[in-house]
Amino acid sequence: MYAKKGGYNLATIYFHPLMLGYFADNHYLCNINKVIIIIMKNITTIIVSLLMGAVLPANAQESGRKDFVKGADVGFLTGQEQRGQKFYDVKGNERECLELLKNDYQMSAIRMRVWVNPRGGDCDKNVLLAMAQRVKALGMDLMVDFHYSDWWADPGKQNIPKAWEGHSFEEMKQDVRNHTVDVLTLLKKNNIEPRWVQVGNETANGLLWDAGHIEKNPQQYAGFIRAGYDAVKEVFPNAIVIVHLDRGNVQSLYDWNLDTILKYGGKFDMVGMSLYPFWFMEDNPGTNADDIITDCIKNIRHVSEKYGCDVMIVETGYEVNEEHPEIMDEGCRQLKRLVREARNNTNGRCRGVFYWEPQCLPRMYKLGAFDSKGTPTAIMNGFIE
After folding, report:
1. pLDDT for 176-211, tens place per residue?
2. Omega cis (within 30) before 25
3. Which residue, 217, 125, 46, 9, is CA-closest to 225?
4. For this structure, is 357 an active site residue?
5. Is residue 315 annotated as part of the catalytic site, yes or no?
6. For the chain, which terminus, N or C, has the lower number of CB atoms within 10 Å?
7. The pTM is what?
8. Which of the residues 202, 319, 323, 341 is marked catalytic?
9. The one catalytic residue among 81, 99, 215, 315
10. CA distance 229 to 74
């Protein structure tokens, strides 16, 4: 996501490879010289991939799990419930929010962010644990999103946690490792195993600035990603580690960022994308939602082929405007198209779509998907297949 000012809109809304070649699908290929050339190309590709740290562990393909996941980030939910917010289905029945998302909108996973030392404990490890226990009780999968900050981290800001300020690069890598292990160990002690773990949130420009700024210190950026990756595997060897970038429709961003990570020894199992047509159109007049979605689907195919990994849309959202229901109908159309094409038009490499904070009311965040009464809008129908 792009960083949006005002209220809860500060939420981030921005955003190996075993590049195995393959023999041409040509039934008439019999010339031995052509065969030799193809073999040499494959060997070269494999060598390059190995040098770039490209070989993915077997669990990168999720041990054969090929389900297409629909889910939601609900980081605001704890605070909403503490303030007495109730949720209702379209028939007016009061419902528990997670159960409503699962049973009425086919969601099978929940994403939760975690901050290092947040003021007031918002989005800390204990809030994560409480929500993770609810997620497990419903039989849903969990994604943990490490921001490596005391507050929001996104392409416009990646602030070093106060407790880590003044630390050297090596000390800060240890900070990343210790924080990651600490949070995940808390989950493990409570018999909770996340299916996916993000090491950084929308790290288009790096993380832990300026130490890990991608332009100023690309090697250190990759080092922090690697420290997070290794820490996740230390606690949960089978967890899928995600690098998350914004603007899923901008291929050049992904090439530059992911190449940098791999060049300097970073690792990841999956690439996470944010896609917000609304914000992109706002910042790029003349663009339209359908072209943005088309470019994202193309980029998913490109990234999966280039880096040999699966991809997931870990954030998306569409405008709620209760005075203009047609806007929400259009949001539903866009979401439905995104879900359909992510499932059917990416050669099986897009593993799912998550909506960012759908349960938010319009006064909190205008790209939620519930109305001012706490009821799902037409946008949510985009998940129903």
Report:
1. 999 999 999 999 999 999 999 999 999 999 999 999
2. no
3. 217
4. no
5. yes
6. C
7. 0.85
8. 202
9. 315
10. 24
